[in-house]
Write a structure and sequence with these properties.
The protein is an alpha/beta fold and about 550 residues long. It contains 20 helices and 22 strands. It is globular. GO terms for molecular function: cyclic-guanylate-specific phosphodiesterase activity.
Length: about 550
C-alpha cells in the first residue's frame, strides 16, 4: 500500500512520571495542509477511511528511525475492527524497519460509537496474536465505554488532555483519575496522561499512580530549556524501594542551575522571572553541584540599600552555601534524618539530588518528602495482610515492572500449601492460621537477608516471591526442604518458579500468565515440590518432589 502523500510525522516522548525516563515515542501524523482529521474526513467521504488510516499507521512505523525506543501508533476504532486491512500494510513496514510487533503499541482512538463490540474485541485479539500491544486513547472526553475497557483489558489507557486540564485544581477530576488508578492497579492496565503542562500536574499524577505522561512539559524535559538542566533521570530509574518510604528518586524535581561563575545579577533575574523557584544550584563544568542559593536569603542580601550596585556584577557564589546533597537511591527516611541534623535558617532548604558520579540530578523539597513518607506509611499499613504483615500483590507487581523496565534477569515464584483446606477442616482454622504465619515469618526473614528478594502474601495460602537468579535456590531450601507440621501432621508445599531472561516478558501480567500453569505442574508432583520453567520453552525442570529427573 502506498504511503499517504504530503504527510510527515512528529514523535512525542512518553516519560515515566516517577523518574522522567523515556519509555516510548508516539508518532503523530502531520499533513502539509490541514490536520490529520481533515485527511481522515476526506478519506471517509471517498469510502477509503480504513485504507488511509492503516496507511498512516504503516507510515508512522517507517518514519520512526529510532528502533531502540518502543513506538505508539494511532488507529481509529473502526480500523481495529478490520485487522486484516490494518495488518496488510503494517507488518511489511515492521519488516522493512527491523522492528518487532512487541515493540509497537497500537493506540485505538475514538469514535467507538456504532461499532460492533464483538468485531472490536476480535480485532484487538488478532493484533495481540501478532504480538502487538494495545492501548485505548481518549479516556475521559471521548466515547470510550468502560465496559470495553473491562472486556478488552488493554495494556494501556490514556487519559485525554481535556481531562488533565482539571488537574490539580478540580477535585472531581482528581477523584476520577484516582478511581481509574484503582482500576489499573487491580487489572495491570497502565495509565498514561496526555497533555501534561505543569509540574503540579506531574506531581499529582505521580501520586495518583499514573506512571506515564506526555505533553509540553515532558517534551521540554526531554530537550531541555535555557534555565533548566534536564535531570540525569535514566540513572535514577528502577532503584529498589527500601523500608524507609518512597525513594528520593520518586520525589525529584528538575533543578534550576547556573554555572558556578554566574553573577548575582544573573541569579536575581532567574528569581524575578520565576517566582515559583525556591533556589538555584551553581554547578561546575562537569555538572556537579558547587553551591546553592536560597531565594529568601539571596534576595535579602542583594536587594537592600545599595545592594544591586555592590553585588550585581560580582560572583553569586559569595552569597551561596555549600550544597546539601543526597543520592537518588536513598530512602525518604534517610533524607529526613540527614536534613534533621541541619539547624538554623537552612533547615528547610531544598536538598540537591546527585547521581552515582556526583552530578546534579535535581532537587527534593522537604515538605513533599514529609508528606510522601506519611502517605507511604498509611498505604503500607492498609496494604499489609493482617495475618502475616506482608504486603499484597502490588509490591511484587511493581517490582516486576521495575526489573523489566531496567532490563534485568529475575525469577518470580508462586508458593502455596498443598491441600490447605484439609488442614483447616481437620485441624481447625487457628492451626491453619499458625501455619500461614510461620510461612510468612520464614519468607520475611528471607527477604531481610537477601537484597534482591521481595515477598507478597496474595491471600489464603498463596505467596509471590521475586528474587535474583542466584537467590532462588535459597528460597527453595528455606521453604521446600523444610519440614512443615501442623500438630502431628506433615504438610507439603509447592513452589513454581519462572526464570525470566531479559526481554522474555513484557509486564507483570505476562509473568503472571506464564506462572499459573507452572503452579499447577508443581501441585501435581507428590510431596513438597519445586518446578522451574522459562518463558518461550515447554521444558519444565522438576527440582524437588517424588522424582528429580529433568523434563516435563
Amino acid at each position: 500500500m502506498a504511503p499517504v502523500p504530503g504527510v510527515s510525522y512528529a514523535f512525542q516522548p512518553m516519560l515515566s512520571t516517577r523518574t522522567g525516563r523515556l519509555l516510548a515515542l508516539e508518532a503523530l501524523a502531520r499533513p502539509e495542509h490541514g490536520t490529520v482529521h481533515d485527511v481522515l474526513r476526506d478519506a471517509a467521504r471517498a469510502d477509503r477511511l480504513v485504507e488511509v488510516d492503516a496507511a498512516l499507521a504503516a507510515g508512522a512505523v517507517r518514519a520512526a528511525t529510532t528502533a531502540e525506543v518502543p513506538l505508539h501508533v494511532n488507529v481509529l476504532a473502526k480500523t481495529a475492527t478490520r485487522p486484516d486491512e490494518l495488518l496488510d500494510p503494517l507488518l511489511p513496514a515492521l519488516r522493512a524497519t527491523g522492528r518487532q510487533p512487541a515493540d509497537v503499541t497500537v493506540e485505538v482512538t475514538p469514535p467507538f460509537g456504532g461499532l460492533s463490540r464483538d468485531a472490536l474485541l476480535d480485532g484487538l485479539k488478532a493484533l495481540r496474536q501478532q504480538g502487538f500491544r494495545v492501548a485505548f486513547d481518549g479516556a475521559g472526553d471521548g466515547d470510550l465505554p468502560l465496559s470495553i475497557v473491562a472486556d478488552a483489558l488493554p495494556d494501556m489507557v490514556k487519559l485525554d488532555a481535556y481531562l488533565l486540564a482539571g488537574v490539580p485544581d478540580n477535585p472531581a477530576v482528581v477523584a476520577l483519575i484516582e478511581a481509574l488508578g484503582h482500576l489499573a492497579s487491580r487489572t495491570g492496565i497502565r495509565l498514561a496522561a496526555v497533555g501534561v503542562e505543569s509540574e503540579d500536574q506531574l506531581a499529582v499524577l505521580s501520586r495518583l499512580g499514573v506512571p506515564v505522561a506526555q505533553g509540553n512539559l515532558m517534551a521540554a524535559a526531554q530537550h531541555g530549556t535555557p534555565a533548566y538542566v534536564t535531570p540525569e533521570v535514566t540513572r535514577l530509574d528502577g532503584l529498589p524501594v527500601g523500608p524507609g518510604g518512597p525513594l528520593v528518586a520518586d520525589l525529584v524535581h528538575p533543578a534550576v542551575t547556573l554555572p558556578e561563575s554566574a553573577t548575582s545579577e544573573e541569579v536575581r533575574q532567574v528569581f524575578v522571572d520565576s517566582p515559583e523557584v525556591s533556589g538555584v544550584v551553581l554547578i561546575d563544568s562537569g555538572g556537579r553541584p558547587r553551591w546553592t542559593l536560597s531565594r529568601n536569603r539571596f534576595l535579602l542580601a542583594v536587594t537592600g540599600p545599595y545592594g544591586h550596585a555592590l553585588h550585581a556584577s560580582r560572583p553569586a557564589a559569595r552569597h551561596a552555601d555549600a550544597p546539601r546533597t543526597i543520592r537518588a537511591d536513598a530512602s525518604s527516611i534517610q533524607l529526613l534524618e540527614a536534613a534533621g541534623e541541619t539547624e538554623g535558617s537552612r533547615a528547610g532548604d531544598d536538598v540537591v539530588v546527585v547521581d552515582p558520579v556526583g552530578r546534579c540530578a535535581g532537587i527534593v523539597r522537604l515538605t513533599e518528602v514529609m508528606r510522601g513518607v506519611a502517605e507511604a506509611k498509611v498505604e503500607q499499613a492498609v496494604a499489609l495482610n493482617p495475618l502475616t504483615r506482608l504486603p499484597g500483590t502490588g509490591e511484587v507487581t511493581r517490582e516486576l515492572d521495575r526489573r523489566i523496565e531496567r532490563a534485568e534477569m529475575f525469577v518470580v515464584s508462586w508458593l502455596d500449601v498443598d491441600r490447605f483446606k484439609t488442614v483447616n477442616d481437620t485441624k481447625g482454622f487457628a492451626a491453619g492460621d499458625d501455619l500461614i504465619r510461620a510461612l510468612g515469618r520464614a519468607l520475611s526473614d528471607l527477604a531481610a537477608r537477601l537484597a534482591g528478594t521481595r515477598v507478597a502474601h496474595v491471600g489464603g495460602d498463596d505467596f509471590l516471591v521475586v528474587t535474583d537468579v542466584d537467590e532462588v535456590g535459597t528460597l527453595a531450601t528455606e521453604v521446600v526442604d523444610r519440614a512443615w507440621r501442623v500438630d502431628d501432621t506433615t504438610v507439603t508445599v509447592s513452589l513454581a518458579s519462572l526464570v525470566c531472561a531479559v526481554g522474555s516478558v513484557g509486564s507483570h501480567r505476562d509473568a503472571s500468565r506464564l506462572l499459573a500453569p507452572l503452579k499447577q505442574r508443581a501441585k501435581a508432583v507428590p510431596r513438597s515440590s519445586w518446578v522451574l520453567g522459562r518463558p518461550g520453552s515447554d521444558r519444565v525442570d522438576v527440582l524437588r518432589g517424588r522424582d528429580h529427573a529433568v523434563g516435563a
